[in-house]
Amino acid sequence: MAVAVRGNRGASNFGAFNLRSFFSYRIFISALFSLLFIATLSVIFTTNPTTPHHDSALPTTGNAYVRRTFLTLNSDPLKTRLDLIYKQASDHITLVNAYAAYARKLKLEMSKQLKMFDDLAQNFSDIQMKPNYRETLFGSTGPLDEDVLRQFEKEVKDRVKTARMMIVESKENYDNQLKIQKLKDTIFAVNELLVKAKKNGAFASSIAARSIPKSLHCLSMRLVEEKISHPEKYTDDEPKAEFEDPSLYHYAIFSDNIIAVSVVVRSVVKNAEEPWKHVFHIVTDRMNLAAMKVWFKMRPVERGSHIEIKAVGDFTFLNSSYVPLLRQHESVNSQKPSSDNTIKFKNPKDTSLLNHLRFYLPEMFPKLWKIVFLEDDVVVQKDLTGLWRIDLDGKVNGAVETCFGSFHRFTHYLNFSNPLIKEKFNPKACAWSYGINIFDLDGWRSEKCTEEYNYWQNLNEDGSLWSGGTLPPGLVIFYSKTKSLDRSWHVLGLGYNPSISMDAINNAAVIHYNGNMKPWLDIAMNQYKGLWTKYVDSDMEFVQVCNFGL
């Protein structure tokens, strides 16, 4: 029993000891935190800054965050606002000075922009130096005047806005990447405009070239009116023997343009050494036949030259049963319009029979041996009789080649993806040009070139061999049958190329206004127009009346 009592007493003593230890620990912890709090307050109050608020810099010691927090809670809100305004102004002064320094580095000292930067930086500095602001805001240790601070803020923001606008406007002058990108954007935009302008110009030029000018229409009407008024003056003459004399110099001109034909004939005659030996065979359409005849009745060919004028319909063998082109026209015209039926022929001139008569020369002039074919947009500057003395070496066609480098090769005119073209022709073969050509009609007949033309024209009914015109079929039928002539015989490009050498033009026997800018149109190039207009019969009364603008 005694043992048990002693044990219980010991247990109670142990519990009392634990309770006393717990309370002692709590007292120790409380005292420790109190000491730390007192030490912190003493550090804060003993390190209070004495420098002006706008020039001070917070220390970077370990108590910086605590001090900043305490100052924020106890400082004047207006002073905090003043600090923010002052810092914003300082940042923009630094930025403006940086751009000004870069401008000096780029040797832009004399530029208006550099002066603006310097003035702006000075304006920022001058604001805080104003007596009102210096005394009230920066020199005072007491409370700040809110009205003065608001006025100061307004002036600073105005200058900040000006600085930002100047920097945005000037940034592209200093940022190389921005300048490069802007230049690329400008080049792209200008190129887009250039492409669009070229397309519009080409379209307008094409329309102008294919349209009948008012002056030409006027001339035709006046000539027809003249025939109706005086029919006795314009009766047809009997054919001359010279028209079939193979010993003379014969020219073929196929056109519906009266003034153009007149210029070609006059230029040949004026430069011929023996004009009475020259014979001109003019073929036009039925609509312009009367006007063409009246013109040459009123203005006869000079110096004894001879001229024959006919219509396409006068050659009775030219019918749809013999000429593939006519048959193709009839086929297209007979088809009903539908979504699947597309008109293959876009330019009427490319598929007009008048333009394709050149492929039937031997049958049109069966008694002639040689003939010179002239386009209606050429001007002859020298005597052409030398063409008849050229040895064609058994070839049928004498023409000036137009290729240089990779340009004007067969591949540009024919569709070499078609097996028929690919098997027969060399894509790198040199092309030549119409304008002035000397044809050996006897050789043409023996080579059966007209039959070959009809064969290929039938194959090209769907336009799969070439797109149109007369040059591609000419290249086909006269392939390996063309004699290259000296380039001085024929200078091309006066209807589209403004950079042709005047020496080349002056030395040429024939100049050719191929292209859309024909010399009788308003869009003609002025530097070449005078070479054509000097052969226009400007004394002809109808030329003056119809206002050709010569």
From TrEMBL:
Q: What is its EC number?
A: 2.4.1.-
* Record's bilayer topology term: Single-pass type II membrane protein
Q: Does the keyword Ribonucleoprotein apply?
A: no
Under the cellular component aspect of Gene Ontology, which terms does the record hold?
Answer: Golgi membrane
- Cited Gene3D superfamilies: Spore Coat Polysaccharide Biosynthesis Protein SpsA, Chain A
Q: Where in the cell is it found?
A: Golgi apparatus membrane
What are the protein's GO molecular function terms? Answer: polygalacturonate 4-alpha-galacturonosyltransferase activity
Q: Does the keyword Cell wall biogenesis/degradation apply?
A: yes
Which pathway does the record list? Answer: Glycan metabolism; pectin biosynthesis
Q: Which UniProt keywords apply?
A: Cell wall biogenesis/degradation, Glycoprotein, Glycosyltransferase, Golgi apparatus, Membrane, Signal-anchor, Transferase, Transmembrane, Transmembrane helix
What's the short name of a Pfam family annotated to this entry?
Answer: Glyco_transf_8
- Superkingdom, according to UniProt? Eukaryota
Recorded hits in InterPro entries, A to Z, give: GAUT, Glyco_trans_8, Nucleotide-diphossugar_trans
EC main class here is transferase
The GO biological-process annotations, alphabetized, read as: cell wall organization; pectin biosynthetic process
Segments traversing the membrane: 27-45
Task: Tell me its family.
Answer: Belongs to the glycosyltransferase 8 family.
**By what name is this protein known?**
Hexosyltransferase
Which organism is the protein's source?
A: Cucurbita moschata
